[in-house]
Amino acid sequence: MARRVSRRKKPLREDYVLKERNKIESEVFDRASLLALAKLMQKGAIARVEYPISTGKEANVFLATTSTGESVAIKIYKIETTHFLRRKEYLEGDPRFKKFRGRERDFVFAFTQKEFKNLQVCEKAGIHAPRPLSLEKNVLVMEFLGREGRAYPVLSTVGPAEGDLESILEDMKKLYKAGLVHADLSEYNIMVWEGAPYIIDWGQAVALGHKRAEEYLERDIYNILKYFAIFGLKRDPKVILAWIKD
Ligand SMILES: Nc1ncnc2c1ncn2[C@@H]1O[C@H](COP(=O)(O)OP(=O)(O)O)[C@@H](O)[C@H]1O
Ligand SMILES: [Mg+2]
User: What are the DSSP E strand ranges found in the chain?
Assistant: First the structure.
């Protein structure tokens, strides 16, 4: 009762501001994402969300900071999207994940978890990928790849440097040894800087037990070699495939 009275006493302007703020928040983050972010703050994984780095069809990536002022990247998979329907093949065929019968949002949660697990495999295998830091529902916290708040560019925008192709092929071989295939490898999912290039976007990566894993591997090799061929770096895909599987 008392709460109701005090609410009514609130100045109109304040009410309006609050309403507007809620509106803005709900247009950027849905309720589930807000709850997940709050949980990550409670856990101490992040202290503040700073600004968007990338907005995509399936996910948005933001820069966030920890309580010690360290930059981290958060990837928030969209819950209200139909784009995920065509991604089911990557989850259902993966022996690590069961046949999927849940609601769409549970599917999105499983996909986020899959990306997190794949990043853990990469870390263990010594593959150049962002270090996984924390996970909550549809939100993934990982190492920020960039400097002074600016993300490194993707390979497609700046072109390759010497050694990039070799590093990527080495990582593909390590990945295969670790039992995974990326399945969406291209110049758009590789971030570059002065050091070895980083492979990102691991949600759809599948275990070798997936019945189409071989096909995805060949497609990854094809996409990478096609891109580097533009710059005169030609390799025989058959030789590379055999080398990766050796
Ligand atoms: N760990 C990271 N650090 C900095 N920027 C990142 C990181 N991960 C992704 N990004 C940025 O966000 C973009 C989209 O990320 P990605 O994982 O490829 O998602 P999607 O392609 O599904 O939207 C990347 O091209 C890159 O610019
Ligand atoms: Mg991507």
Answer: 48-55, 59-65, 71-77, 132-136, 139-143, 146-147, 150-151, 180-181, 190-191, 198-199, 206-207
- Judge whether 8 lies within some domain: no
Cα(54) to centroid(ligand 1), Å? 6
Q: Look at residue 177 and tell me whether its pLDDT is greater than 90.
A: yes
| 137 lies in some domain | yes
Q: How many domains, in total, are found in the chain? A: 1
* Atom from ligand 1 closest to the CA of residue 201: 17
Residue 184: active-site member: yes
Ligand 1 atom closest to Cα of residue 130:
1
The mean-pLDDT minimum among 19-23, 77-81, 192-196 falls in 19-23
CB of 144 within 6 A of ligand 1: the answer is: yes
Q: Domain limits at 150? A: 31-245
- Residue 166 sits in a domain whose CATH number is 1.10.510.10
Query: 6 in a domain, yes or no?
Result: no
* Closest protein CA for atom 24 of ligand 1: 54
From the CA atom positions of the chain, what is the Rg in Å? 21
Which residue has its alpha carbon closest to ligand 1 atom 1? 144
Mean pLDDT of the chain: 90
In-domain check, residue 3: no
